[in-house]
Amino acid sequence: MSEYKATVFVITSREDGLQRRPKANVDTISDNEAYRLRSIQRLLFTIDEQIEELNKIFGILLFLNLGGNLFYLLSSIINLIYRYVYANDIFSLCFILKRFFNMLIIFQSPGILLTQRRKCLAVARRLSLYNQDCKEITDIVDNLQNEPKFEICGMFLLGRHNLFSMLNFVMTYLIVAIQFSSNEDTQKKNLPSANYTQLLD
Question: Where does the record place it (predicted)?
Fold first, then answer.
């Protein structure tokens, strides 16, 4: 019985000790956390401003660059289809790949800034998890949730998804061009026989 009482006394004393432990003041943050939070906030605002400036200044140039590269890409592919691919067309293929990689670099470029922004936002979220009741951190994290968008002249968003859209468009254009080229070849082959039958008549 004495052992049982001793055990109960130890358990109750531990619970009392846990209950009497002073709670941390989560409504305030330390100077180190405040400095980190302000640094993250400034960095995210700087990234957002850079994205807005990029949209304003380089939007038209990026649109013209992408449009010119796509036009050159399609015209070169059509030229190769009509001439067929010979050994001397390797130079043309290299230029096609060069234009394609130029477009690929433009499509991938927004991911660099957005990735850095997401990393900084993840740090701010970790701070908010440690200080869930701190309104200052939660307000900043909520305000930084919306990511800025890379827009080209307000027409479409720039990102990795453009690569799949471009490949889909090029493949559709390529299939239509090949079908049109094969129809022209069949018409040219049938032309001499039609002229010969007219001469016989």
Answer: Cell membrane
Question: pLDDT for 8-25, tens place per residue?
Answer: 333 333 334 434 333 444
What pTM was computed for the model?
0.50
User: Rounded mean pLDDT of the chain?
Assistant: 67
The 10 Å Cβ neighbour count of residue 153 is 12
Per-residue DSSP letter, 152: E
Q: How far apart are CA 154 and CA 34, in angstroms?
A: 37
| Residue 7, domain member (yes or no) | no
Nearest-angstrom CA–CA distance, 181 and 40:
57
Residue 79: how many other CB atoms lie within 10 Å? 12
Cα dihedral 166, 172, 177, 178, rounded to 10, equals 120
Residue 108 contacts by C-beta under 8 Å, 6 or more apart in sequence?
A: 160
How does DSSP classify residue 21? Answer: S
Helix (H) or strand (E) holding 136: helix 135-143
Model confidence pLDDT, tens digit, residues 49-105: 777 777 777 778 888 888 888 888 888 777 776 665 555 566 777 777 888 888 888
Within-domain flag for 194:
no
| Number of structural domains the chain divides into | 1
For residue 123, the enclosing domain spans 29-184
Burial class (CB in 10 A: 0-12, 13-18, 19+), 63: middle
